Amino acid sequence: MATTSSVEIAVVGAGVVGLATALRLAGEGREVVLIDPNEPGSGASFGNAGTIAEYACMPVGNPGVLRALPKLLLDPDSPFAWRWAALFQLAPWLVRFVRQSFPEPTRANALALAGLLAEALAGLGGNGAGGWPAGPDAPQWLPVHLSA
Ligand SMILES: Cc1cc2nc3c(=O)[nH]c(=O)nc-3n(C[C@H](O)[C@H](O)[C@H](O)COP(=O)(O)OP(=O)(O)OC[C@H]3O[C@@H](n4cnc5c(N)ncnc54)[C@H](O)[C@@H]3O)c2cc1C
I want to staple 134 with a disulfide (CB 3.0 to 4.6 A). Which of 47, 77, 118, 128 is the partner? Predict the structure, then answer.
């Protein structure tokens, strides 16, 4: 039997992005429900190597990818694959992707990503806080493991 419930905010997807979003909202006193048919953290977040890769701020859509797009689309050995039957459905996304891959949007997107990534490092206690060393020798990654 179908049941209905009413909450203030529904976050769809319980990967690291959805979990962090829900946690932040709950911390601010908002009523949140997470919706996911799978175990939390079982998607891409499960395989995460845990690198706070602040240097990885170049967006996937960039002029280099744009130049390589025809070869990526036509080469059968290309790592990029899509269903031609879905071309009509994908067209709006592809148009946005191409537009965002021009030099100026790429630069703006890289700066936006760099801002997010810098906050991530500081949030984990980098820059000398929380016991994580600062300076040129500061680690770019933190080894963690399950103990049992
Ligand atoms: C092997 C590997 C190593 C990586 N290493 C790093 C790293 O070192 N550093 C780094 O920054 N990034 C790394 N990444 C990338 C990073 O893990 C992903 O960018 C990140 O986990 C994406 O999180 P997400 O919450 O967007 O997606 P996911 O973790 O995939 O979560 C999406 C969730 O949404 C759910 N979902 C999908 N569709 C629906 C729907 N219609 N309704 C409800 N739920 C739905 C899925 O079940 C899933 O649980 C790595 C990725 C991989 C695969």
Answer: 128
